[in-house]
Design a protein that fits this description.
Blueprint: H1 4-11, E1 17-22, E2 25-30, E3 35-40, E4 45-49, H2 52-61, E5 66-68, H3 72-75, E6 78-82, H4 88-107
Antiparallel strand pairs: 1-2, 2-3, 3-4, 4-6, 5-6
Length: 108
Amino acid sequence: MISEKIFIEMALSFPGTEQKPHFDRIGFKVTGKRMFATYLAENNTANIFLTPEEQRVFCKMNAVNIYPVPNKWGEKGATTFVLRKLNKEIIMEALLSAYTEVMNKQKA
């Protein structure tokens, strides 16, 4: 199980990343750029902002515990991960994908 502490450490492990409040969540963003993930302590879930293509790949891995956010953001790739049911490697891979996408857009 991935705890709040472990998820925060994972999200902040990328260069230039900061933690900010985001409504009822903790948000993680590249400093001066956009958010790539949020964490909700209430149910130990993370929303990670993938591309729609990446979202499809991750959802196929475990459709019960990885699924699109049920709104317009979900259609754009925002994906919920149930942290108590997933291993650290999958979460780190998703975070890296989301972080890399933000960094690639920054260079463009």
